[in-house]
Amino acid sequence: MTAAYLEVTDLNSKKVKYIPVPRPSTMSPYTAWISKLSDTDVLLAPLGTGGVVTVDMGGYVRLWETGLDNLQRSLMEWRGMIGSEDGRPIQITIQRDSGLDVSSPKHGKVDPNNDPHVGGNQWAGGTGGRDTAGLGGKGGPYRLDSGHKVYQVSQMEKDAVPDEVKQAAREMGEKAFKERLKEIQMTEYDASTYERISGAVRRQVQSLRIILDSLQAKGKERQWLKNQALGELDDSKIIDGLTGEKAIYKRRGELEPELGTPQQKPKRLRLLVDVSGSMYRFNAVDGRLERSMEAVCMVMEALENYEHKFKYDIVGHSGDGFDIELVRSDKVPKNNKERLQVLKTMHAHAQFCMSGDFTLEGTEHAVQELAREEADEHFVVVLSDANLERYGISPDRFARILTINPQINAFAVFIGSLGDQAERLQRMLPSGRSFVAMDTKQIPQILQQIFTSTMLSSA
């Protein structure tokens, strides 16, 4: 697939390099006859200093940079554009149509050698293919990560999958998820798996418990407000009234609690966690699903035996919906086995759910539900991977929902990001309402900021 080579000579370093020029993918009928007369498929001309221009028989014009200074400048511009300075992996996306159709979803054959398979429709755990369980493909029933480099088909190809194939894939995924849930509930407690997750956040759990111990009551209490100009006559002010004092009445009203006052009601927390397909798909890239599981484990462990201070539940959101029950407020996990079941359910759901995003719906539903409950304070914390652009979700809409009810303290914590997605989204949301945590160790400090921000806002 090479029409010619550019020979580039660097006289300073005494090096010669050859750059392949691709062969035309299409040929115009008006220029096809030229190929029979000409000795070459490509014509070349100089382009100022440090570059050349080529044109081939298909009419493709390409500009080539060959000068060292120009190349270095372009490289720096490219790195700045894609944000590689933070040390995270660089991803290059090439849009092209595979030209292959889907048939029907299936698990696929299991390769005993676990060799990488790209673009086919036979093997389970392949990438960029179709019909089978894998990553980056189309028409498959669910995701399956075999630990190989992922090749991704375009979103346009995925959207073009026929509805009947999508429906069959959904049904197969739902069946596999139900079977996985049965396995999770029946499996013996896996101490090593839980220790791996719990051990990574042990210090953070202790830090969070210290923060919980220091939280003050915030709920206003109804008390008699004295020295009022209107209301019921205050018996202790009768003499003052005879002397002409006007503020001799009292009435029932709400007062901010004094420092150290015990809570009359527990604070209410809903942790809204992202268990969408992108969490599983990009977990190998930046560990976002693992980080989310660690964060949930941290909250469950830290809030154990703090029922008098905090009433919490954990709800998932994904392409399957916005109110996926993980932990009920009246049935929180009491031991490591129950907590591990929650974590395994998160992982399984992200693997088997359909593509899509219900972050906004989940946040709005959480705000509305908590507003109906009496509590010392209300908190909604949304864990998300910031992958909102793909579904056309604007930061303005997210910002409106986070601030829709002044009685509900709603915050977003982005625990995954492709490039600088999370940072850009954070900059466009209201100040103090969003955080970026690419390390689980940052989450206790973020929760401390969330809990104490309400005290500062009322000061």
Automatic annotation (TrEMBL):
Biased composition (Gly residues): 122-133
SUPFAM superfamilies: vWA-like
Domain of life: Eukaryota
PROSITE patterns with a match to the protein in the record: VWFA
InterPro entries to which the protein is assigned, alphabetical: VWA8, VWF_A, vWFA_dom_sf
Region Disordered, residue ranges: 99-133
Domain VWFA: start-end pairs: 268-450
UniProt GO cellular component terms: cytoplasm
Protein name: VWFA domain-containing protein
